Amino acid sequence: MLVFGFDYSVISDNQDALLDGLVLTVEVAALGFLLAVVLGLPLALAGRSRSPLARVPAMLWIALARGVPLLIVIFWLYYAAAQEGLFSLTAFVAGVLSLGLTGSGYMAEIYRTALSAVPVGQYESAAAIGLSRITAFRVIILPQAVRTAIPPAMNLFVMLLKGATLLSVIGLADMFYTAKLVAVNEFKPFELYTAAAVLVIAVTLVAALGAGLVERRFSKGVRR
Amino acid sequence: MSATTTSSLLELRQVTKQFGATTVLQPTDLQVRRGEVVCVIGPSGSGKSTLLRCVNFIAPPSTGSIVFDGAEYTPPTDHRWVPALGLPEERRLTRLRSEIGMVFQQFNVFPHLTVRENVAIGCRKTCGLGRKEAAERALAELTKVGMAEKVDAYPEQLSGGQKQRVAIARALALDPKLMLFDEATSALDPELVNGILAIMRELAEAGMTMMVVTHEMRFAMEVADRVIFMDRGCIVEEGTPEQFKDPQHERTRTFLRSINHG
């Protein structure tokens, strides 16, 4: 039982700022996720290649993307690169890139397992009707793999969304940044951080609904 | 039509297949005439399926070559470092496969496509038909195998026998010169086997060149022009069904006895 009152007014007073921040958080996470989805497929294919020229760099990338903590990637892209005069990015771009690059490693693994889940017989019968490997991949293999990939990809999106809250450390005025600001100014950390958590959960739920719809679209002809 | 006038549609020349250190197919020579029905029998692991899969390079032979309709095909070079270099060769094999239909034991229909699309996809992507023509072609082939009513169903809604009918229609839609049947009835419920065998029989009577790996001895005896018995990666014995009533080799005799009383 709470021994102090929960002050809703501090949330409703700042609700516009919080929601603006939430939009930014979702934007960064969605763009980062999109980047991961786009990068993940060639990475997964290169990782499955027989040629070491494709496989070794891809596996290195995947290992690094999954191994380096997101916070370090963020700092590296935002501060370290600028300090060395390599390039300088806005907090938004640095955010999208760090989420996308980290996510690409996970996404590649998601594609890889999804592709392995397509039975060998599908590859064989696609070849037997004279489809080239590229066509077979595009019209037979990938649509079946995508179906398998959707639930774990959804997990990744949630992970990136939660990871996006880290971007407040480089001053991205996202939802968590706003919540922290208000929490400090108004001295109401419990209210604000709870609100922040609820907002993230709300987005996660909406995303899960969306993923369900997409999954149904790709599940034609498959018993659930 | 091709330039060759020989009656042999398919010729295997010293074809072998190894998986690592295991030799699955010993050097094998075989000729199949146009319109001929060749049934391949033998115990499991004898290399029957491998033989069939070498013909359309689903499992490329390790050595030897295959002459199909006057063109020779050799084992593809292993471009391990730069696989893209193998594309021209791959394209040639893709063309070969479009002239050879194959029916699998496990049907391998495409679960995410409707029955119609399963058949039409090859017409569209391989023969370059438009969406509408391909759909018409698919319907025509599906009608022949008695599946016209199921064109909009997904494979998941079909029985094994129906799936296999779709798979046969899918192969025939490409107007192949040779049909390969790899134990097409082995995964079916006994009551569904005869329907599929009847389709195969009709196909044979219509003059299709066929290689049939099967355990259905009655089918082999009645439909085949030639029967081949394989064991341990070798063709042990071949002859007409008549000759197989009194096999020369002891191994053939043992095998036939075992399946007749199995």
Plain-language structure description:
Chain A: Residues 22-211 form the ABC transmembrane type-1 domain. Chain A: This is Amino acid ABC transporter permease. Chain A: It comes from Conexibacter stalactiti. The complex is a heterodimer of chains A (224) and B (262). Helices cover 80% and strands 0% of the residues of chain A. Chain A is flat. The mean pLDDT of chain A is 91. In chain A, helix 2 (15-48) crosses helix 5, helix 2 (15-48) runs antiparallel to helix 8 (175-186) and helix 8 runs antiparallel to helix 9. Chain A starts with 7 loop residues before the first helix and ends in a 6-residue tail after the last helix. Chain A is built from 9 helices and no strands. By secondary structure, chain A is an all-alpha fold. Chain A has a domain at 27-173: MetI-like fold, CATH 1.10.3720. With 262 residues, chain B is α/β, with parallel strands linked by helices. Helices cover 37% and strands 24% of the residues of chain B. Chain B is built from 9 helices and 10 strands. In chain B, the strands form 2 sheets. Chain B has a 6-stranded mixed β-sheet with strand order 6-7-8-3-9-10, sandwiched between helices. In chain B, helix 6 (190-205) links the parallel strand 7 (178-182) and strand 8 (209-213). The longest helix of chain B is centred in the last third of the chain and has 16 residues, at 190-205. The A-B interface holds A 49-53, 119, 121-122, 124-133, 135, 139-140, 143-144, 147, 218, 220-223 and B 56, 58, 80-83, 90-91, 94-95, 97-102, 104, 106, 108-114, 121-122, 125-126, 154-157, 167, 170-171, 174.
